[in-house]
Design a protein that fits this description.
This protein is about 70% helix and about 5% strand. Among the domains are: about 1-80, Rossmann fold, CATH 3.40.50.300; about 100-160; about 445-520 and about 545-590, no CATH class. It is built from 28 helices and seven strands. Helix 17 (about 345-360) runs antiparallel to helix 27 and helix 18 crosses helix 19.
Length: about 600
């Protein structure tokens, strides 16, 4: 296990390391941001710290790459470590008050080792009242033993003026302080970070909001929207793929294969003309620039300050700034973000954030495509979109906070220093995310093309033939026509009357359920061909942002929250998305804000 700590805050973070060691885990400790700590006047004896703890300790500076080779070597050695072999002797064993030690001995004798961690660590967590470890022990020990453990915990707690959790924590902190006194020298007068004034501005409830607006305007609207969705997509889709690659492939493949099989590769739903074109020419440039902006915000240290800024708002909806972690990750991938709701302290918070992720947080590809389309329509479209999504986000959050019982957890976050983003770091992070995009998303776009082709096969004269909007897929499209008409998207009748329309709204709805970014790409294609009005763009962007979670996200919701909760959330999201889309369409058509 790798435990990365901020070197200058070692005094606060070392107790966590000690707790991991008490659990019997093979830990490697990385003292990160060592360069910035030394610049502030801190000095460390890394070798002595390793001897005190009895584990590998390495000093690193992730931003510059300092110490990373040594850290990799230490991790490589740890991975080859024989789990049955004796660990390096460090003599580290925190001794607690005699009454607590007696309770630890009695509890371990009663329960044995019900968890994967050391018996002593399990006993300490039970004494501290850890809910999750108590639930685990309840499942694996007899009711008689469990009742005896509860009596021991109560009797031990009665012997102290302070709660056992505080008593144990203070003793662990004292042990950490003793180690730090021998291995770290802090400056007599700690220097203030050079950009502390800017850090305060970014977190100020009034001064910080204009900064957020500037980031959204220049980073998202201008760079991702106007340049990415406008200029880059135009060059790739129209000039490169539409003008060179796809026509050449069409001539080549149609000369080799029959119409039935050529449509699999270069037809309306062809692997090259639809799947790869969408993934590379439409979604990739938008997502790539979005990842670039996100990496710059991440490397500069702005994201944690954004969490502090919106902590005040989140408190109103029963959350705190820690919820920023899964919510911000949701703008990358809602499926992974749903898994990270485990970092939230209470079940109430986890349910609220899971619901908000499923409802109002678009994934990176989806948000990039929608913001690009809306930016092309104009600032009014962007304003309406953000206004509706934020209003629904806050309203649903407030109602969920009122309905769900429970208390709000406290919020603490480590603030890294502000710095100019390093080009190498930004490029590596962007490349890593794009690599994930190609590995995970591109095959799914190709699979979607194949499924659309299969669903459009129809028997004609006793032979299989490819018929756009025919076959099984045509039946599904027609069944979804009422929902498409509700939010103003093309129906099957519209496609028949206008051959330029490649998709019905039902096609986009169905593909959006399987993969959100595929549905977004379908809308972007219609928009690029001039087949969507400004009202349709705004309404469809709002509806699809609020639309059902994709299959992968729903499966994770089921795993994390249970089937009943996941189904309830999906039904709620479906009603809200189409209700909001239909109402917004009526309002926009009645007021004429976006034309007709």
């Amino acid at each position: 296990m790798l435990h990365v700590v901020d070197a200058k805050n070692l005094q606060r973070m070392l107790p966590m390391t000690l707790q991991l060691l008490e659990a019997g885990l093979p830990v490697t400790l990385a003292l990160n941001m060592l360069d910035e700590s030394e610049a502030l006047g801190f000095q460390f004896d890394v070798a002595e710290l390793g001897r005190e703890l009895g584990i590998p300790v390495r000093g690193t500076a992730g931003a510059t790459g300092r110490g990373m080779t040594e850290l990799r070597d230490a991790l490589d050695a740890a991975c080859r470590w024989d789990i049955g072999a004796p660990r390096e002797a460090g003599g580290l064993c925190i001794t607690y008050d005699a009454r607590i030690e007696q309770a630890i001995g009695t509890i371990t004798a009663l329960i044995g080792r019900p968890a994967a961690i050391a018996e002593r660590a399990t006993a300490l967590l039970l004494l501290q009242g850890d809910v999750e470890i108590e639930a685990l022990v309840t499942e694996r020990v007899s009711p008689v033993a469990l009742e005896q453990v509860r009596e021991i915990v109560a009797e031990t707690a009665a012997q102290f003026a302070q709660p056992l959790n505080i008593v144990i924590t203070l003793r662990r902190q004292a042990a950490a302080n003793d180690i730090i006194a021998r291995t770290m020298q802090a400056p007599v007068e700690q220097q203030r970070p050079k950009l502390e004034w800017l850090s305060r501005i970014l977190m100020h409830p009034l001064a910080g909001l204009p900064v957020v607006a500037l980031v959204l305007y220049f980073g998202i609207y201008k760079f991702v929207g106007m340049f990415g969705a406008g200029t880059l997509v135009g060059l790739l889709e129209e000039n490169l793929f539409g003008g060179i690659i796809n026509p050449w492939l069409t001539r080549l493949i149609e000369g080799w294969l029959s119409p039935l099989w050529s449509n699999l590769f270069v037809g309306d739903y062809g692997i090259f003309t639809l799947g790869i074109t969408y993934a590379v020419a439409i979604v990739l440039p938008i997502v790539g620039l979005f990842f670039l902006v996100f990496s710059i915000m991440e490397d500069s240290g702005y994201l944690p300050r954004l969490a502090m800024l919106i902590d005040r708002i989140f408190k109103k909806i029963g959350l705190n700034g820690r919820a920023v972690i899964p919510l911000v990750l949701g703008f990358g991938c809602d499926t992974m973000a749903t898994m990270t709701t485990r970092v939230l302290e209470t079940r109430r918070e986890r349910i609220i954030v899971t619901l908000l992720l499923a409802l109002a947080i678009p994934c990176s590809a989806q948000s990039g495509v929608f913001l690009g389309m809306l930016s092309q329509v104009g600032p009014t479209a962007l304003g309406i979109y953000f206004g509706v999504i934020v209003l629904i986000f806050l309203t649903v959050g407030l109602l969920a906070a009122k309905v769900l019982p429970g208390q709000q957890a406290q919020f603490y976050i480590e603030l890294p220093p502000l710095r100019l983003p390093r080009l190498n770091n930004v490029l590596v992070k962007t490349y890593t995310r794009l690599e994930w995009y190609f590995i995970e998303v591109l095959p799914l776009f190709i699979l979607a093309s194949v499924l659309l082709w299969l669903g459009s096969l129809t028997l004609q004269g006793g032979q299989l033939a490819f018929v756009p909007h025919g076959g099984l897929f045509g039946l599904i499209e027609r069944a979804l026509d009422p929902l498409a008409a509700l939010i103003g998207l093309p129906t099957t009748a519209d496609v028949v009357n206008n051959p330029a329309l490649k998709f019905t709204g039902g096609t986009i709805l169905l593909s959006g359920f399987f993969r959100r970014d595929f549905g977004a790409a379908g809308l972007a294609d219609l928009f690029a061909d001039g087949l969507l009005s400004p009202v349709q763009v705004v309404v469809s962007a709002v509806t699809f942002t609020l639309f059902l979670p994709c299959i992968a996200q729903f499966l994770v919701m089921k795993k994390e929250r249970g089937l009943r909760t996941a189904l309830g959330m999906a039904a709620f999201v479906l009603v809200i998305s189409f209700g909001a889309g239909a109402l917004l369409r009526v309002v926009l058509l009645a007021t004429g804000w976006m034309g007709r």
